[in-house]
């Protein structure tokens, strides 16, 4: 498989963090007493926020209180300390103090029932910081902890994760054959990552698929370029296409440059593709919003726990003359959803594809003073019109599904699939064959003689042994050809519909 | 269904707690500074142990330290308090202080990875205490929280739970159609309980069964008599049979009385039946051990976290002349396992049936000062010979399985089962029919015409519509007849083998 030679280490090394808009890289210790640092500071993408780490104070309880204000009331604190002491002193096995207290912190986070609020211990936080310094190698997917399971929010486009067939909402339950039960999100991510060229086998539970899938992903370095663009001529019209893969610090600048280049060419319409884009910096999407959303209209509204909202209003001076269509799918999350909703609601533009992921909250990483960190949900964001899309997603104005074979799970053929079998695996293979124009006769999972003929034809074309039986080689070849077909613009019905709409509109 | 008219409110109201040997009912506040109250106090079954609740001290942290000794070191405490303050003050939603700290306590318990160490909040603890005062009505099963799931340790014998077909290791995932995800063990138990005559529908995941089962259990009052006995004459030999359903406070006294009555009759052998007995008080099983285990031999060894062992040695003066066989199964847990292992290892007696549950730890309930409680594992116990049976169980000397239909899952017939179907449900029905002497032709899950004939014959005998189709009425009738057959001593191969061994032995 070919991989782009441009890389995106910062973004993908933050694969866990990326889904959080307003995510600030925490490196220095600054004063953390300001109540709403993110809201007050929307002009500066580099804002660093941290809870004061060490001011020389010796009294532990007092310092925590000084730093953050809320004191545990005495009777409640007494109860917690009593439970702690009993467990430390009397449980049948000795436990490490730190381990118990990390358990306590995780227990508080569990009460919140928020997959985006997580604790990172010193080691994990440090490893994450280290990985920021070097070029990142991994599988290229954003994950979150949802209902206790490590869950794919979205594989990055053209990433090893996407090529291997991982999909949004896949739940990773094993890595290289070992269960990851009990691992934190960050521990799991560190195991998934690894050197370019090595393979990691993920055991995945997929909603609607009864058996666990074992998916081999060949790790790679991940492209750093978050914005790519192209000029397309269709029926005499000039259409600009800008794809945003994630919202990193440089994304808005890159976007602006490429947008202006396209505008110089005199485009008649613009397609913005945020499919499979898991989000990134709030500032980044706001800056892009300022280039597209009509002036005076809100790009996004940030709401704090008291329900107070701050509207971030577009300062665009000249409204765009050309029509815009944004492509979305269930892998479009967070900042992607802000952009799509703003273009739809405030701009009245087309949004084409499928309902987005639905992440309507803002996290910030806060230091706990010993190198460990708390990533905590501090705000909600609402769309231009004030809609909360959390767990709902942004609906397209034009719903367009891709062809069925886009959604097929990888075929597991450890036991070869052959004539007269009847299974989900056979159904997957049939959908793939159909998508590749080898007519399998049926797509209901029964391996008919027509299916066998289609397999033979496929094997013949691929230079494989012509057996009519789907063994591992044939399954891999099917998977490779399907990935190619998915990346062929001719099969991209969402893209095609966007172009149609822009030309009609013109 | 017939239910015994003797009741056991105390035992079963403690259905969650019962599995813990050395479980003391916590009612008064006494001094909790003694390090090993259980070990030092084996002569007194009424020992109450609690952490000092309120000594008028105002300083929370200090009191916890005074009471239990272990202080959180300053930097660790600082970190916990900082995390607490950040979450309290800044998380996007406001949370109750108490809820967060209960989360913290549960988080510490999670670190222990021990299904028997649990936290009970004020309300739950109070409801449990209340239920001790009145006659208890419920389903009659011991449950534990294992891998985050409410799991049946054992249904009590002849209880509604057993009659409805619940089995050890069934995981309860729903109650009356609602998921119980997120509920604590105690919250779940309080929902399972209810008035006699009412029905609770439990949604159950059973190891080895692919689909969830919905099992209706009609609640009832639960017999208080923990010991029943009988004199059996077989081939001219007099065999005493004593069944112990659980180890409550009065169990040892009742056992002694009935044993002496049997001995007066001049028995030639003794069968002790602890199948489906989930355990109870450590003192209770020690007292019974003193009546049966050869003098000078250890009944059980209690080991603390430092690995120090205290041997509880039998004080029996006159060794028993007659042979003894103990009946066990996978529902025999805790105190039952102590007794079976002692009789096997120290007494050299027969143990007949199947490997037991495997619970080798001792819990104690400790008060946290505000009415809430911590049930915590404080000790391990080892068998007479020093074997740790935790998660292993006690193996029988004579392994005997019951007939297949003893292990059949209830038939789910919301959609009627009929000719030419092929499913696990059909297989269950076939095993039941076979056990009831209606030959279904096969027991592989294919609903053949022989199976249809067997269903017709069964329906005819039961006065049901003779359709050959298994609808809900037929499924219930099958279940009822199977329960009767299970309770028929003629089908009890384990019991029969025990009798054979005793007569051979004689």
From TrEMBL, chains A, B:
The keyword ATP-binding does not apply. Residues 117-193 form the PDZ domain. SMART domains: PDZ, TSPc. GO terms for biological process: proteolysis; signal transduction. Pfam families: CtpB_N-like (PF22694), PDZ_2 (PF13180), Peptidase_S41 (PF03572), PG_binding_1 (PF01471). The keyword Nucleotide-binding does not apply. CDD domains: cpPDZ_CPP-like (cd06782), Peptidase_S41_CPP (cd07560). GO terms for cellular component: outer membrane-bounded periplasmic space. One of its GO terms (molecular function) is serine-type peptidase activity. The chain crosses the membrane at residues 7-27. Keywords: Hydrolase, Membrane, Protease, Serine protease, Transmembrane, Transmembrane helix. InterPro entries: ClpP/crotonase-like_dom_sf, CtpA/B_N, PDZ, PDZ_sf, Peptidase_S41A, Peptidoglycan-bd-like, PGBD-like_sf, PGBDSf. It comes from the Bacteria. Belongs to the peptidase S41A family. This is PDZ domain-containing protein. The lineage of its organism: Bacteria, Bacillati, Bacillota, Bacilli, Bacillales.
């Amino acid at each position: 498989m070919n991989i782009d030679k441009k890389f995106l280490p910062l973004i993908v090394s933050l694969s866990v963090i990326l889904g959080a808009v307003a995510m600030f890289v925490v490196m220095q210790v600054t004063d953390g007493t300001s109540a709403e640092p993110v809201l007050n500071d929307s002009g500066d993408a580099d804002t660093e926020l941290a809870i004061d780490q060490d001011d020389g104070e010796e009294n532990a309880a007092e310092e925590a209180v000084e730093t953050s204000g809320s004191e545990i009331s005495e009777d409640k604190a007494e109860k917690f300390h009593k439970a702690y002491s009993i467990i430390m002193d009397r449980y049948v096995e000795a436990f490490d103090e730190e381990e118990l207290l990390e358990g306590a912190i995780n227990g508080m986070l569990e009460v919140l029932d928020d997959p985006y609020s997580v604790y990172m211990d010193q080691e994990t936080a440090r490893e994450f910081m280290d990985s920021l310094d070097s070029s990142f190698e991994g599988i290229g997917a954003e994950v979150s902890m949802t209902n206790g399971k490590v869950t794919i929010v979205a594989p990055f486009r053209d990433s090893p994760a996407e090529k291997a067939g991982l999909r949004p909402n896949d739940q990773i339950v094993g890595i290289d054959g070992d269960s990851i039960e009990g691992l934190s999100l960050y521990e799991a991510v560190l195991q998934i990552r690894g050197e370019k060229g090595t393979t990691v086998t993920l055991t995945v539970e997929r909603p609607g698929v009864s058996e666990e899938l074992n998916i081999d992903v060949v790790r790679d370095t991940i492209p750093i370029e978050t914005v790519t663009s192209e000029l397309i001529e269709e029926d005499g019209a000039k259409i600009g296409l800008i794809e945003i893969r994630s919202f990193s610090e440089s994304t808005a600048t890159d976007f602006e440059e490429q947008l202006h280049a396209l505008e110089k060419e005199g485009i008649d319409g613009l397609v913005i593709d945020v499919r499979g884009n898991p989000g990134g910096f709030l500032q980044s999407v706001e800056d892009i919003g300022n280039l597209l959303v009509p002036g005076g209209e809100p790009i996004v509204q940030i709401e704090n726990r008291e329900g107070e909202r701050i509207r971030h209003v577009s300062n665009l001076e000249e409204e765009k003359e050309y029509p815009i269509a944004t492509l979305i799918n269930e892998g479009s999350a967070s900042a992607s959803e802000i952009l799509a909703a703003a273009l739809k609601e405030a701009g009245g533009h087309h949004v084409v594809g499928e309902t987005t992921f639905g992440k309507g909250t803002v996290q910030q990483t806060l230091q706990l003073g010993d190198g460990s960190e708390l990533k905590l949900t501090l705000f909600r964001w609402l769309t231009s019109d004030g809609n909360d899309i959390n767990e709902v997603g942004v609906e397209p104005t034009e719903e367009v599904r891709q062809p069925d074979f886009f959604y097929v799970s990888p075929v597991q053929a450890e036991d070869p699939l052959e004539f007269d079998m009847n299974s989900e695996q056979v159904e997957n293979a049939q959908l793939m064959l159909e998508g590749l124009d080898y007519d399998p006769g049926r797509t209901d999972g029964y391996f008919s003689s027509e299916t066998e003929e289609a397999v033979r034809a496929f094997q013949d074309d691929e230079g494989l042994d012509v057996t009519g039986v789907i063994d591992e080689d044939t399954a891999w070849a099917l998977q490779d050809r399907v990935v190619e077909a998915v990346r062929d613009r001719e099969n991209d019905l969402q893209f095609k519909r966007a172009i149609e709409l822009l030309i009609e509109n013109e």
